[in-house]
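One chain is below:
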Amino acid sequence: MVIASNGGGVLYVADWGGAIHRSRSASLDDAEFDKLADDLPQFLDHIRRCVVSFVETGATGDL
């Protein structure tokens, strides 16, 4: 199930076990995904850390 997008076409999906994966490209044709978090709370914490880092340093995080 798609749960988020970065606005540029990269998708974040949840698998049946609850793990969150990020698409490697903006295309769903032959899309490949990398595991980003074990569950939704871990994914949301990762987003929070990226936002805090951006506010403090102006650098975008690795999301």
